[in-house]
Every structure is written in C-alpha cells, then in structure tokens.
Amino acid sequence: MKKSKRIRLEAMSFMLLGAMIITGASTAAKTVKPATAGAAEPMEEDREKVEETGENGRNDAFQVRLPACTEEVFDFIMDPQELISKTEAAAYGDCVFEEGATLFFKRSDERRLEDYSSQSDTLEIANMGTTEAEITLTAAVLEETLGGIAMTEDMDFIGDKGPSLYLALTDGSETIPITREGGASIYRTLEGKSGEDGNYGSYWFQLTGAANPNGDWSQVTSASPKVVVTWSVSLKEREETEKAENSDEESAPAEGGEDSRSGTAPDV
User: Fold this and answer.
1) How far apart are CA 7 and CA 138, in angstroms?
2) Does some domain include residue 195?
3) Averaged pLDDT for residues 73-78
4) The pTM is what?
C-alpha cells in the first residue's frame, strides 16, 4: 500500500528585455492519494499521516510535512542585458541584487544575502513518521511559453549566441538542468524519525538559473516562460523494506567475523 501526496506548482516568470517588463503569477494545486479506503484525512494543509500494521506486527506511521505558501517562490526575472545592474536597480528601490547574475528569484528566507538572487528560496520536505519515504521531484518549462527561447544545460553558455535560458532543479548535492523535452527529475529516499533522539529526516530543494548574456535577444518580444515544479512523497513499499531487513538479518556476520557489505547513504 502506498500513501502519497503530490504538489504541483506553476510559476510564471518575470522577464526583462530592453524597457519592456512582462509579469506573471503562480498557482498551486494539490492531489492526495490515500493508501486505503480508510486512510486518515490530512491533519493539516501541508501534512499527511497514516498508520499501517505489517505482518511483523510493527506499526508504520507515515507522516510528512510538505512546503506551504509556495505561490511565488519560483517566479523569476530574466535580465540577459544586465539592465538592472546598469541602472543600479533604480526600479526596485533599496533591493539588493546578486552581482553578475542574469536571472533573479525574489528571496524571502532569513538566510538570504540579497533580495534577489540566481537561486530561489529553498523548500523543505520533512519526514516526521517512523518509516522511510520516497520523494520524487520534477520540473519542466512549458514549451508553448518559451516564444523562441532555447533551453540549455550549459550554465556558462559556451559558444552560445542565441537567446538561451538555463534553469535547474537542485538539492545541494545534485543539480539537474531542465531540458526542453524531458524537464528534470530527482529521486530520494528520506529516513524517518529516529526513536532514540526524535530527530526527523529533512530534505531541501530549490531552483537555480541564468539567462545568456552573450545571446541575441532582439527577436524575442513576447516570451514569458512558465516553469512547473512538482513534488511527490510516498510511503516506501513495505515489501521492499522488510525484504531488505530480512536480508540484513540473514547475512549478518558471525561473531568475530567481518562484514564485507558496503553502501552509500542517500543524500538528503
């Protein structure tokens, strides 16, 4: 049985070309897929909980805290001609912009160094249950909103003279560029709350981006790229978990022996 919650966030970009500014808005939609007909209703808008009993009599509590208030977190400004810097951000009051950047997300978290930077605020998924959770992140740019802008996987735009946009999904340990055809995806397994110290598993992610400062943007007059970011959290299949645990028990080394098994913990 699986318990999952999926969040879909659509963010309309802000785009700055010459003296023209195009603005947009963002929306969020949520879908809850219960594990069973009797699954618990959401405790809060951003939290899901369900308890199931396995064959071994163990209660697995699935409880996750998902990002909230995300309506504008991935909106951005494209400034490939660096007009904001050249005008000392005159149109933005006392706001501080990241130096040398060509794409800006408005920042609101307390750890920010600038009011606008090439990285968005980070969003957190917290696993407050006792069982592992599977996280799937996806990001895509709607092709019909590109208006002649090319998506690139090269954040340095080497040899690129066209109007190109670099956007990537990142969690700090992995950065996946958003391609025109396939978008970007990241998969993670997040540990549950520890019974000993009560600490819960936490996973952070964000977007980062740039616009080609060497490109010819003269023919781009009506583009307004829209990026869609989706996160999905599911209870890890019990069969896989219990099989892994049984396998560990069967292959445990004898007293005084050596364990030759090795592995790498997932990045969270």
Assistant:
1) 10
2) yes
3) 93
4) 0.73
